[in-house]
Amino acid sequence: MPKPTPASTSPTPSTHSFASLGVPESLVVALDAMQFHAPFEIQALTIPDALDGRDILGRAPTGSGKTLAFGLPLLAGIRRGRPGRMTPPPDPRRPDRPTKRGRPALPTGLVLCPTRELAEQIRRELEPLAAAVDRNVLAVYGGRGFGQQLTGLSKGVDLLVACPGRLLDLIDQDAVDLSDVDMVVVDEADRMADMGFLPDVRKLLDQTSPDRQTMLYSATLDREVKVLVDQYQHDPVQHAVAELEPDLSQLAHRFIQVPKAERIWLTADLVTDMGSTIVFVRTRHGADRVARQLKNHGVKAAPIHGGRSQSQRDNALAQYTGGKVQALVATDVAARGIHVDGVEAVVHYDPPAEDKDYVHRSGRTGRAGASGVVVSLLDKPQVRDSLQMQHRLGIESDIEATPERIHHLDPVRPGSGSGSRRSGASDSGGPRRGGQSRRRRARPKASSAASGSGTASSAGERRSASGSSGSSSSSESSSGSSRARRTASSGSSNQQDGAKPNGAKPSGESRGRPKGKRSSGPKTGSSSGSSRSSGRPASKRSGKPRPKNRKNKPKGGGPRR
Predict the structure, then answer these.
(1) Residue 169 buriedness (CB in 10 A; 0-12 / 13-18 / 19+)
(2) What is the mean pLDDT of residues 41-70?
(3) Topology annotation, domain 25-86+102-240
(4) Is pLDDT of 32 > 90?
(5) I want to staple 365 with a disulfide (CB 3.0 to 4.6 A). Which of 25, 102, 372, 410 is the partner?
(6) Which CATH superfamily does the domain covering 248-423 fall into?
(7) 160: nearest Cα among 144, 176, 146
């Protein structure tokens, strides 16, 4: 590859305007209507060479104005594309009639980008400018059905903005053909390499016109990105602007050593204290799990990752920016397309794999001169790696122990409907688990050897338990005093055993009792007391306990205990 033009880092002169860079008048008028009056630095450097048809190698970070830097030359130079034609379904009334074969759409401009959010952002920014020059723009990406995108291709598209995977799928369906594409932009090439998309990018570039103009933008020129430059660009002009790295010295950094079992409790507490927060995790499954657990602890959270549909990701982002959720739980890949202002804090729930990931994550907060807090949650084995990373990035912060108040949180159980957490120590001194079911109260077992006052007390306890749901505190007090009187009156009180509350059966009643013989009033006589004392049901005629043999055993299988 020929040696590129030296990188320029000079600021944009204030006398520059889009018209002075050679932008067509129709686009200048549209830019004025969109309140774009002066070009950014990367735009002033690259637009003149791009309008001359040169290949561009631009080194610029996200948010530096790259979209207009390549979008304006594209819209000024692309030709009108040929619309496609979808293959109609066969006519069931004329199965022998051949159907008219469809044909793929032929765009003339192509922009490749790594994420759905970035593809949609490029389309939204270029669409009003494309209308000013009578061109149209279509974005295709995964996470949505093929129907709407196939319909857009059949109507015709001039500039196609695409993620590599979905575009290859559409090519396999003969919905689009890239042979007429003579202007190509590869945006965020370094991120394409990180996400493993460069093999797909090379397949797509091989299908475009060999006489194309190729503009490549990347924040870094790693080995894989350099392969694209060597193979697909011809005498490129290189321009670069200063990397807009977040100023880590302006952020408050906290590193907390906390066991994994208590990490979610601490995260919920941090989000409640700090406000709008982005929580970074390593995997898609982890994002779903952490978001679900935060909801169980009274914190409104929404997950966003590559495994969710585009509508779900858009909805999660809209809820977060609208203040309907307090925390956005994101993976690194999904977070690359998130550009949100007003983020109060960032929580590294899973520590980043590399230093640049820590810088990228942390840069989501503290923007535009605002303050921000960055909290990293660490296991004991991760402390050493964290200290080394701090040294490399120039961060000075001690490793904190788990805050004491984390042991006193009482979460809201799922389904309670409350949005706040209560504070209070658990019985064991540690955190209580949300959603833990209450233990059932054990029933007191009747003893066949019990007699007199002991039996009466046991029966009174069972009566009190069965009627507790509908009784008030005064009835409980009355029940307790009557129980004491029955205990003091020995055998006679056992005979006067009143009706059970809520229609409950007497404690000594047999399951095998014939139907229709149940009395509604209180029972009197010695049979009731003797049956409870012996633990066996009484005979209907004599009132004496039935003999303990199989012939006279009740049908229900014995006394109900």
Answers:
(1) middle
(2) 89
(3) Rossmann fold (3.40.50)
(4) yes
(5) 372
(6) P-loop containing nucleotide triphosphate hydrolases (3.40.50.300)
(7) 176
